[in-house]
Write a structure and sequence with these properties.
single chain; mainly alpha; two-stranded antiparallel ribbon; 5 strands; about 5% strand; disordered N terminus; zinc ion binding; Znf_RING
Length: about 230
């Protein structure tokens, strides 16, 4: 049986086997970290660049650019070694979650510098993610627009109902005023008819009284004195 070939040790400058000061790593086992880097299980702790440079990869946690990065085993997302050490909370019994897909027991592996094929696939995946976000945003805007139209329709219908109520109340008021006028006219006409009925009787009594006085014989004044 042949001997099992071990992972080839990569040649790394000694200064890149320890953190570069991006974070304050107090509880890092530097000997273990150096061994993992030399055994190509973790990416070297290269200093990150703030500006994008050709053939450099961006860490999505610290947004710095590195010659090579680690790969998340769960979702293949890239991460630099110092950010990975920051994810692993020391002396904690809780399993570490992936900062990208939230998978428990977060672990990474180092595959070296990305090939052109890997970079091309990542660009395609990033483009798909961007297009998906654009579609989601467009759907959200469409939903908001539909909600706004519904609110406007409801408000316009409420205004129409209020106008109809006002018209109905004004018509009711005008109808009541007409009925009052008609009632007054009826009452006044009844009063006038009653007056007309009363006046002839009064006139007849006056005429009879006058006729009685006129029918009384008038004696000459001289005769009264003679008697």
């Amino acid at each position: 049986m042949g001997n099992k070939l071990g992972r080839r040790r990569q040649v790394v400058d000694e200064k890149y086997t320890r953190p570069q000061g991006l974070y304050n790593h107090k509880d890092v086992d530097h000997k273990k970290l150096r061994k993992l880097i030399l055994e190509s299980k973790l990416a070297p702790c290269y200093p990150g660049d703030e500006e994008s440079v050709y053939d450099r990869e961006e860490c999505p946690i610290c947004f710095l650019y590195y010659p090579s990065l680690n790969r998340s085993r769960c979702c293949a997302k890239s991460i630099c070694t110092e950010c990975f050490l920051q994810m692993k909370v020391p002396n904690s019994t809780r399993p570490t979650q992936c900062p990208f897909c939230k998978t428990a027991n977060y672990a990474v592996e180092y595959r070296g510098v990305k090939s052109k094929e890997e970079k091309g696939l990542e660009q395609i995946e990033e483009q798909r993610v961007i297009e998906a976000k654009i579609r989601i945003r467009q759907q959200e805007l469409q939903d908001e627009e539909e909600k706004m139209h519904k609110r406007l329709e409801m408000s316009s219908s409420n205004v129409n109902v209020a106008v109809a109520d006002v018209e109905y109340s004004s018509n009711a008021v005008s109808a009541s005023s007409i009925s009052v006028v008609e009632h007054d006219e009826i009452v006044s006409s009844q009063d006038s008819s009653a007056t007309s009925m009363v006046r002839p009787n009064a006139m007849s009594r006056t005429n009879r009284y006058a006729s009685l006085h006129c029918s009384t014989p008038q004696f000459p004044i001289s005769l009264i004195y003679l008697s």
